[in-house]
Sequence to fold (198 residues):
Amino acid sequence: MKNIQKITGIITLAIITVFLMASCGDPVAQADLGIYNIGDTGPGGGLIFYVDEDDEFPGWTYLEAAPVDLSPRYWSSSSIDSPGTLKELGKGSNNTIIITLTHWTENSSNNAAWACNVFTGLNNTKDWFLPTVDELELMYQNLHLRGLGNFQTSEYWSSWVDDESANSSQAYSFNFSNGYHRSDVKFVRNRIRPIRSF
Fold:
């Protein structure tokens, strides 16, 4: 009987410990447990613009756009290639890693990908990245066209460089005045909106 009481006490203590650890954990991790809809404010203080309802992307369910633009910056100050970047949804984080690694000698606040990489949002969120063309298009459709997000009718840098293009001095931008993307010279200062996944 004493052994049963001892085991029950240990199990109860373990359950209480787990509960306390969960309730006192990282506020962002706790906030991430919520359910969000398009247009809701996310844990980083920005707006939710995509919900992965079909579990297409392992490791995350939501895409959140930062609450404000960063000031206009170059995509890059050089024409160094960044092979392997993609335009599709869910690739922005990996693209940003590729860009910051291939352009490591010029990583500064003037570089679009680097500026997103070092951006800090609400609740000390530091996992922001430069969106792809497809991710920008979703922000345009799900936020901008609904009057959300305070986007400007300007060009926004994406993290995509077309590997098949012979011109390494260009990257793709997305125009929030008409919803089209185009190849743009990397040395142009375009607007930037960091995003994060969670």
In short: The chain has two domains: 2-26, 47-197. Helices lie at 2-23, 27-31, 92-102, 112-117, 133-142.
